[in-house]
Amino acid sequence: MPSENKSEHDLPMPWSAFLDELDEALSEPVALHCIGGFVVSLLYGLPRPTGDVDYIAAIPRYRIEELEKLAGRGSKLEAKYKVHLQHVTVATLPENYEDRLKEMFPGRFKKLRIFAPDPYDLVLSKLERNSPKDQGDVEYLAKTVPLDPKVLQERYQQELRPNLMARQTWHDGTLEMWIGAYFSNSN
Fold first, then answer.
1. What would the mean pLDDT of 74-84 be, rounded to a whole number?
2. Are the CB atoms for 77 and 22 separated by under 8 Å?
């Protein structure tokens, strides 16, 4: 779990300066729904560096173009800090993930609000890609949070599987593999 003695406002470099400059440059308030290594490392303490903030939604949506221009690939902020925002357009999350979002760094920024899915939704967001990094993140979260495999399985069955467009049995197998490999010492 995240360190309890760290302030919710603590952000390591280069993220603190990068996000502060982005916050100042925004023309109006924007909320980001983030996933990926940024969330796993900054919210849950995974000691793996990441070079981007993956976000699946920006609210209001019409600010995505501004976000990408200010802080996306090829932006001045990326050139200055060597990190960037990345709008992820292909990711599937459980149906009701928005109800369980947690704000990261509440009150730290004037216009920017950064939200992360709960750890079960974060794990399920990695199911379709299932890269070696995703597997490492799942293993870390399973042991660190720790996660209950029954809750993960129920959320998958009720909120994610019905919305998968293809390869449902493939994803069923991936989730079973994860549970067998990463949850063997739990429950």
1. 98
2. yes
Cα–Cα distance, 181 to 187 (Å, whole number)? 14
CB 111 within 8 A of CB 29: yes
The string of pLDDT tens digits covering residues 99-123 is 999 999 999 999 999 999 999 999 9
Cβ(175)–Cβ(127) under 8 Å?
yes
Our CA angle for 93, 174, 39, nearest 5°, is 40
Residue 7: inside a domain, yes or no?
A: no
Range of the domain at 154: 15-182
Domain count, the chain: 1
Does residue 50 belong to any structural domain of this protein?
A: yes
Please list the helix, strand and coil fractions of the chain in percent, rounded to the nearest 5, in that order: 50, 15, 40
Tens-place pLDDT, residues 43-60: 999 998 899 999 999 999
Is 80 exceeded by the pLDDT of residue 186?
Answer: no
